[in-house]
Amino acid sequence: xxxxxxxxxxxxxxxxxxxxxxxxxxxxxxxxxxxxxxxxxxxxxxxxxxxxxxxxxxxxxxxxxxxxxxxxxxxxxxxxxxxxxxxxxxxxxxxxxxxxxxxxxxxxxxxxxxxxxxxxxxxxxxxxxxxxxxxxxxxxxxxxxxxxxxxxxxxxxxxxxxxxxxxxxxxxxxxxxxxxxxxxxxxxxxxxxxxxxxxxxxxxxxxx
Length: 208
Hints:
3% strand, mainly alpha, 8 helices, single chain
């Protein structure tokens, strides 16, 4: 008996990625992933980084959240959206998601060669507190969390919403670990003072 690849493809490309207008949100995030991965080669040389075992504290919720966030999970489980926003609602969500992604890209470009996918101390590393880093300490996480939560709510599936929440918690945990690491590496007087001056992820809140 031959395996029917068409069924596999229909599941892989099913769900909200193939239904307009939610397909627009899928295209936005696919474009983001392609550009983000493509730019991953632009980073400085690593001097020190957090051990892999320790990093599982934030990697695991992000991984599980990412799996739940994918459109085919709800499709396989047969779960329907809790609500339907319609063209206007999805369009607004798309604009807000792009705004979040743009804020994350601003943070990455402003960070320049000091950016890394892991928690690292780059050569010549120093505290950056200008641009988006003068608004929040982790603008990349701020933008991505905002965009993913907006998309999750717009899709309306339990799995997508839960996935967005888990990814957000993973990024928050990673941010906390980064701050402990950088406070030791860059000095409490430098990085600690920055943390006491600028909010962590949500703008305009009290620092810490």
